Amino acid sequence: MRIGRRKKDIGNQELLWQKFLDNDMSAFHRIYRENYQVLFSYAMRFYYDKSSAEDCLQTMFLNILNSRQKLPKVKNVKAYLMKSLRNQILNSKRTKIDDFPLIADSEFDFKKKGLNENVYGQLKELINKLSPRERELVYLKYFHGFRSTEISTLLDIEYQTVRNILANAITKMRKLGDNVLQLLFILFR
């Protein structure tokens, strides 16, 4: 059911994107509203203050709006927007991103995931021991449900590299944690 709903959501987003490309501003506003929070959360991984993250996000949306005649048709709007945002962030920082905090307390509802605070603390500690690149891929894969092929496109890296990094991250977490099987099950379900 989850996969069927995801395909339907992607299909709706694809239709909405096409309407935007055809100059339907209500479609643009809907794309903006439906994707803003996840994009803002993603931007906050790179910036430590809300205003910088918001500025970057607004600039990205303005660039998209101003260049809509040149934009391609896309199947996964969320992935396209995240890639556009990441490119905007890289352009604005003009440096390699070397930090990527994964879990923000205000964003991750550990009670909803069935975690008590102690288990949540262990999970957060394990994830924070991963490299920034591993944290970023874990974030995209397990917190936002992107497939490895989508992550590959989003980050402009090879599909096999994505799989290798994710496998290494899981292996590293297994070596670091005592309750890692329970934590991985909770995180990845």
Explain this structure to me?
It is a single chain. This protein has helices spanning 2-21, 25-43, 50-66, 77-93, 117-128, 132-143, 148-155, 159-176, 180-188. With 189 residues, the chain is mainly alpha-helical. The chain folds into two domains: 2-93, RNA polymerase sigma factor, region 2, helix turn helix motif (Rna Polymerase Sigma Factor, Chain: A, Orthogonal Bundle); 117-188, Winged helix-like DNA-binding domain superfamily/Winged helix DNA-binding domain (Arc Repressor Mutant, subunit A), CATH 1.10.10. Helix 1 crosses helix 2, helix 3 packs across helix 4 and helix 7 packs across helix 8 (159-176).
Largest sheet: none
- The fold-level CATH name of the largest domain is Rna Polymerase Sigma Factor, Chain: A
Strand tally is 0
Number of helices: 9
Question: What is the CATH class of the largest domain?
Answer: Mainly Alpha
Query: How does the overall form come out from the CA principal axes?
Result: elongated
Number of domains: 2
Q: Average the pLDDT over all residues and give the rounded result.
A: 77
Distance between the termini: 14 Å
Order of helices and strands: HHHHHHHHH
Strand portion, in percent?
under 5%
Extract low-pLDDT stretches: 95-100
